Amino acid sequence: AQSVAQPEDQVNVAEGNPLTVKCTYSVSGNPYLFWYAQYPNRGLQFLLKYITGDNLVKGSYGFEAEFNKSQTSFHLKKPSALVSDSALYFCAVRDPNNAGNMLTFGGGTRLMVKP
Amino acid sequence: DTEVTQTPKHLVMGMTNKKSLKCEQHMGHRAMYWYKQKAKKPPELMFVYSYEKLSINESVPSRFSPECPNSSLLNLHLHALQPEDSALYLCASSQEQGLNTEAFFGQGTRLTVV
After folding, report:
1. I need a labelling partner for B37 at 20 to 30 A (CA). Which of A102, B53, B91, B108 fits?
2. Residues on chain A touching B45 (C-beta within 8 angstroms)
3. Nearest to A48 by CA among A76, A24, A26
């Protein structure tokens, strides 16, 4: 079975401060990990993915994520938050041992960036 | 063109109506998906098409009927829905149904069943 957990329902950050949105995963094989952002009344926007290689992955809009195998985590980070980063963020995983390679989403974390 | 286009953006339908949601992509992607999303919840997979064939049906009730007329189009036919089916319906596509392929999502159709 595969699962992905986002332990925080909401994260509040002041504009200009660094932000971290947490994600942990549990898969039976090597994980394929993704982050998406959902802005109000919109679909999901792909930010970045980890497949293999460097543990630090850089993505769209200045976001990056760090893959940590020992802690089974894939936290999303940004050095300096913008008000426009306020959105609902989803971590997702594909498990190579899961038939169909389905994408499983975490419960989501609402990021609020205040001016 | 990196867009997935969904129409309509909003739909209100009665429980006896028949309606269809449409999704289109021109990225040459061979996998297309329907997801259902309730407010403040993650998307839930409904159907996957791979190379225009239904590959996954996540035990979705038969009142939802998917169709893939060609590699660019995906429809979701709705009939005799219930109020609890009200949700945001998201279409997505990916290059293939592979492990390392990210999915691109449309903006969704917000469906209200009255």
Report:
1. B53
2. 102-103
3. A76
